[in-house]
């Protein structure tokens, strides 16, 4: 199967692609796989010879802390158009796994293909580098939010970010999104108890900022939600310019 258009949209949201760039991207052969909720998409370790690109649904980067008890921590969320493990292309291995958050579909690209791109397509190489830099910027912003925001604002920030990332590739519109996370998973991601998350969801509803039913969220007041979250999308680098 050819490379997903979501990744093309991800790049075109931020830069212009030449005819040669588009031809190369659309000629890449990939393997598409579907995953059940909680299923491992990429395993931690050293034997990695391809990279995973999200096509549908959502994925989480999972770290496991071992000791007297085992604890799992989700440290990133990936949406359509995201490479979930592009950093593994230049590392000897990765210390985390990637799991499906809800039903998910992804494409896998051999590292040999990425090597050929980096050796022959300098503009696409810079854009691949850009995507890993944006991934790192999201990590930094999560740390800032975790340290600076209280539970309701922290949850609001996550909603603003995920909606903005989905909308940028055409996977969400009209301030509606699907967030396939249980409250205990949100608690894991944001670092609160399930009770705190339940209260935060109720607070956002009571303020008239969102309508939240199951996994479906409608943002009723974008400006109010973004103001509460102190959300500034600059770290997502959505400006379209030559790289």
CATH architecture of the largest domain: Sandwich
Q: Tell me, what's the shape?
A: globular
Distance between the termini: 28 Å
* Average pLDDT figure: 94
Query: According to CATH, what is the topology of the largest domain?
Result: Jelly Rolls
Account of the 3D structure:
- The chain folds into 2 domains: 5-143, Jelly Rolls (Sandwich), CATH 2.60.120.10; 150-236, Arc Repressor Mutant, subunit A.
- Helix content is 42%, strand content 23%.
- It is built from 8 helices and 8 strands.
- A hairpin with a 2-residue loop joins strand 7 and strand 8 (216-219).
- The radius of gyration is 18 Å and the shape is globular.
- The model has no long low-confidence stretch (mean pLDDT 94).
What is the topological layout?
Elements: H1 5-12, H2 19-27, E1 31-35, E2 40-42, E3 50-65, E4 71-78, E5 97-110, H3 111-120, H4 122-148, H5 151-168, E6 176-178, H6 183-190, H7 194-206, E7 210-213, E8 216-219, H8 222-229
Antiparallel strand pairs: 1-5, 2-5, 3-4, 3-5, 6-8, 7-8
Helix pairs in contact: 5-7, 5-8, 6-7
């Amino acid at each position: 199967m050819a490379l997903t258009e979501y990744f093309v949209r991800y790049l075109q949201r931020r830069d212009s692609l030449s005819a040669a760039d588009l031809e190369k991207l659309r000629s890449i052969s990939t393997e598409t796989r579907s995953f059940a909720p909680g299923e491992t998409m990429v395993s931690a370790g050293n034997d990695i010879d391809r990279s995973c690109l999200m096509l549908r649904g959502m994925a989480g980067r999972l770290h496991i802390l071992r000791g007297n008890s085992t604890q799992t921590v989700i440290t990133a969320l990936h949406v359509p158009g995201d490479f979930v493990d592009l950093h593994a292309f230049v590392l000897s291995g990765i210390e985390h796994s990637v799991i499906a958050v809800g039903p998910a579909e992804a494409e896998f690209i051999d590292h040999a293909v990425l090597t050929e791109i980096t050796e022959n397509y300098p503009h696409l190489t810079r854009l691949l580098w850009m995507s890993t830099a944006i991934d790192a910027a999201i990590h930094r912003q999560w740390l800032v939010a975790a340290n600076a925001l209280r539970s309701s604002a922290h949850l609001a920030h996550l909603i603003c970010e995920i909606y903005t990332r989905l909308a940028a590739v055409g996977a969400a519109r009209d301030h509606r999104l699907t967030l396939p996370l249980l409250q205990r998973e949100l608690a894991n991601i944001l670092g609160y108890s399930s009770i705190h998350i339940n209260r935060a969801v109720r607070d956002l509803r009571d303020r008239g900022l969102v309508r939240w039913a199951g996994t479906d969220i409608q943002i009723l007041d974008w400006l109010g939600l973004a103001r509460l979250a102190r959300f500034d999308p600059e770290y997502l680098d959505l400006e379209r310019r030559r790289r």
